[in-house]
Amino acid sequence: MINPIALHNNKLLILDQTRLPGNEVYIEVECVDILVDSINRLAIRGAPLLGIAAAYGFFIGVSEYDGNDYAGFRNKCRRIKELIESTRPTAVNLSRSLNQLLNLVDEMKGRSIQEIKDSLLNKAKSIHETDRLLCEAIGEIGNSLVPNNASILTHCNAGALATGGIGTALGVIVKAHQAGKKVHVYVDETRPLLQGARLTTWELQQHHIPMTLITDNMAASLMKRKRIDLVIVGADRIASNGDTANKIGTYSLAVLCAFHKVPLYIAAPETTFDLSIENGDQIPIEMRDGTEIIHCAGKPVAPSGTNTYSPAFDVTPNDLIQAIITEKGIIEPPFDENIKTIFNLES
Ligand code: MRU
Fold first, then answer.
1. Phi and psi at residue 340, in whole multiples of 5°?
2. What is the pLDDT along the chain (347 residues), one digit of tens a residue?
């Protein structure tokens, strides 16, 4: 079983994804600074997993408070929240978890600090377990969209290494495979940090799912040769109208899909929707350090000092998306109406 985050004897362990596929090394998160550093350098990553890590990290950070004064504790909580929130702005799961934990602190005003800390740990565990169940449901529901003998393209990593369960986009593929369908997965390597090449292939290998690795610029040629039946990816944030932020390169795939009439599915839990924003223009896009482009797998591939442009994510407009697979069901266009309906919100 792939376990990117675990509580073991009250210690938080995270699998250092920068070392995969070569080494399976766990980092012990003894303090919040270790977590912040791990998130910043993508040792832990993927929107739902960032939500889980943020929740445990918040608990670890505020546990350092050893006073009994609620105001002082609340202040510490606010500072820890801001610290973790400052890491990666695009995946909404991260700030969502932190808001949930800070709200709990507010609701428990008047209770002992120890009681509040205990409840925060329980909340973090429940966010983790809930995500596991959400992945199961997304996988089961999404399986209905996968025909037998499907050739599927995916981008980045939206699997167990990005969630608390079997993954979102990869969860669908895993469920189709477990249901006995023949599937073949084309994996985009996903430059600059190679989450596809390093992580998705590693996961698919463990599931014994047939796959082929391609560089990102090969997808068009595959589609032209009718070798792709569907594309399925995860999401970092989905706006009220269905516009979806995901790993840089998803938008190019979406354009290719539209041109070649290949359906593009997004798989994501409700925790990845940000219904406070109307459309994708309002999604903050993380910019990464250009050295990640100048290097590939740790080696320089361009002269140092080369100008770079390195957004970590792009936004795919809703009209390029065939459907969004959630734990509540499959959302089809018109997304603005159907997203509200599926999540029982007033129109
Ligand atoms: O920069 P990363 O590796 O955190 O980006 C991850 C992605 O873009 C995933 O597709 C997304 O978070 C969904 S994970 C279920």
1. -60, -45
2. 889 999 988 899 999 999 999 999 999 999 999 999 999 999 999 999 999 999 999 999 999 999 999 999 999 999 999 999 999 999 999 999 999 999 999 999 999 999 999 999 999 999 999 999 999 999 999 999 999 999 999 999 999 999 999 999 999 999 999 999 999 999 999 999 999 999 999 999 999 999 999 999 999 999 999 899 999 999 999 999 999 999 999 999 999 999 999 999 999 999 999 999 999 999 999 999 999 999 998 899 999 999 999 999 999 999 999 999 999 999 999 999 999 999 988 65
CATH of domain 5-136: 1.20.120.420
Beta-carbon contacts of 276 under 8 Å, excluding residues fewer than 6 positions away, are none
Interval between CA 101 and ligand 1 midpoint (Å): 23
Q: Which of 131, 188, 236, 274 is labelled catalytic?
A: 236
Q: How far does residue 50's CA lie from ligand 1's centre (Å)?
A: 9
Which strand ranges, in their side-by-side order, compose the sheet holding 11-15?
A: 5-8, 11-15, 26-28
CATH of domain 144-342: 3.40.50.10470
CA distances (Å), 335 to each of 141, 145, 203, 237, in order? Answer: 18, 18, 31, 14
Domain ranges of the chain: 5-136, 144-342
Q: What is the model's pTM?
A: 0.97
Pocket of ligand 1 (CB under 6 A): 42, 45-48, 91, 156, 158, 162-163, 168, 195, 233-236, 246-247, 312
* Ligand 1 pocket: which of 45, 154, 193, 198 to mutate (most atoms within 8 A of CB): 45
